[in-house]
Amino acid sequence: MDIEEVTKAFGALSQDTRLKVLSLLVETGTGGLPAGDISLALGVPQNTLSFHLSHLEHSGLINRRRAGRFIIYSANNEGMKNLLRYMVENCCDKAA
Amino acid sequence: MDIEEVTKAFGALSQDTRLKVLSLLVETGTGGLPAGDISLALGVPQNTLSFHLSHLEHSGLINRRRAGRFIIYSANNEGMKNLLRYMVENCCDKAA
DNA sequence: TCCATGTTTCTACGATAAATGAAACATGAT
DNA sequence: ATCATGTTTCATTTATCGTAGAAACATGGA
């Protein structure tokens, strides 16, 4: 994970709505949730939410798949593990 | 760590210069570095750097102490551990 | 006291991000 | 083909962030 990807991922997490989306998706698990349900759950308009979902996806923190008319979003565990790995390696005192 | 502190911390990490500052300070260890040395090491003007240092400090990721004319910055391990803890608890599939 | 050094604050401006109404697109049902 | 539903894209406005010159502040030494 290079520094550009890392800053992008942190940028994705640095906003209230997006952090809530991610928490919700992590909580929900592999099954994921359609955009509409997330919108409803968080009280964020669909178009606003769409913007944030796109942001999270481009940062590699969530995945999307289509199921009929619905687009299902779910947490991307790989992406988050990569970020955690970076933090442990670069942002923590190795001696501590 | 509440959601506001968390977004603030991620915001602090979501910028190239600040991430580099933190990496440098982590690498340097408890001894820390004066602002001028960081400025020199990263090639960032002192006033610009001062802005970012302030940002990092308010986010609880670094500490400052004065030593004579110098102001010494160092990584705040506690702050980073708190952030890591939050991530593991809220951003990772507990089942995985 | 006066000066040099290290650092921050003030100020201003260009760049980037957030929010949302309106329009468009995609899919499935009739 | 037509329509309803779920979702995104476009376009616009407003807010926030990043940068750096200039000025100010703090400390230590002569």
3D architecture notes:
The structure is a homodimer of 96-residue chains. Chain A has 96 residues and is of the alpha+beta class. Chain A has a single domain, classed as Winged helix-like DNA-binding domain superfamily/Winged helix DNA-binding domain (Arc Repressor Mutant, subunit A, Orthogonal Bundle). Chain A is 61% helix and 15% strand. Chain A is built from five helices and three strands, in the order H-H-E-H-H-E-E-H. In chain A, helix 2 crosses helix 4 and helix 3 crosses helix 4. In chain A, 31% of the residues are buried. The mean pLDDT of chain A is 93. Chain A binds a DNA duplex (30 and 30 nucleotides) through helix 3 and helix 4.
Choose one word for the global shape of chain A: elongated
Total strand count of chain A, please?
A: 3
- Provide the CATH topology of chain A: Arc Repressor Mutant, subunit A
Helix content of chain A: 55-70%
Give a brief rundown of this model:
The first copy, chain A, is an alpha+beta fold.
Keyword list:
5 helices; alpha+beta; Arc Repressor Mutant, subunit A; DNA-binding; homodimer; 3-stranded antiparallel sheet; 96 residues; elongated
Write the layout of secondary structure elements.
The structure is a homodimer of 96-residue chains.
Chain A lengths: L2 H11 L2 H13 L4 E2 H8 L3 H13 L3 E6 L2 E6 L1 H14 L6
Antiparallel strand pairs in A: 1-3, 2-3
Helix pairs in contact in A: 2-4, 3-4
Chain A binds a DNA duplex (30 and 30 nucleotides) through α3 and α4.
